[in-house]
Specification:
This protein has helices at 7-21, 64-71, 99-108, 111-119, 129-142, and strands at 28-34, 40-46, 49-51, 54-60, 74-81, 86-96, 154-168, 176-183, 186-192. The protein is an alpha+beta fold.
């Protein structure tokens, strides 16, 4: 594994390699959250933006993950690229994206995805699939053209990294692992045992 002082640069290089080799969703990541009682919960979400500020994903803020983040605004991310035999772990605080960022991303979504954000009471009990389909039909009637506003309960979150771990599979389980933690001058890197 090549060494660099910048974990973002290494992440981008690995994401680019995954984009070229992974058969599906190279931007898929496990998002782990905890509620206010400390009960962990993990699920797959899609990375929709990464820059020097952090890692962005979008969701219904009233969902299970949204409730967890309201109670405990910290999270862990895990990217696993099986074809490359690599993974990246990221841990840090979480903050909401701005309304302007959420609006801009929402506008890029396919029409049915935007309608679905209105139709789905994500993570709540659903009597039947027919109920969801009826909700979607009602939203199609309510918003018959492309002008579909972003629901007030749909937005994004940014994970602000306080720690990165890069893991590269190596023969005989003698894996390569590097931890990055922030300093006043940038980031420090430390190799750790596999």
């Amino acid at each position: 594994m090549s060494e660099t002082d910048d974990p973002y640069a290494l992440f981008h290089a690995w994401l680019d390699a995954a984009t070229a080799s992974e058969p599906n969703d190279p931007n898929a990541m496990t998002l782990a959250t905890c509620d206010d009682a400390g009960m962990p919960s993990a699920r797959m979400v899609l990375l929709k933006g990464v820059d020097a500020r952090g890692f962005v994903f979008y969701t219904n803020t009233e969902s299970h993950k949204g409730r967890d983040l309201a109670a405990n605004p910290r999270a862990a991310l895990l990217f696993h690229w099986k074809s490359l035999r690599r993974q990246v772990r990221i841990e840090g605080a979480v903050e909401p994206v701005s309304a302007a960022e959420a609006d801009a991303y929402y506008a890029t979504r396919p029409r049915l995805s935007r309608l679905g954000a209105w139709a789905s009471a994500q993570s709540r009990p659903l009597a039947s699939r027919a109920e969801l389909e009826a909700n979607l039909a009602a939203m199609r009637t309510r918003y018959p053209d492309e002008a579909i506003p972003r629901p007030p309960h749909w937005s994004g979150y940014r994970v602000l990294p306080a720690r990165f771990e890069f893991w590269q599979d190596m023969p005989f389980r003698l894996h390569d692992r590097m931890i990055y933690t922030p300093t006043a001058a940038g980031w420090t890197m430390q190799r750790i045992y596999p």
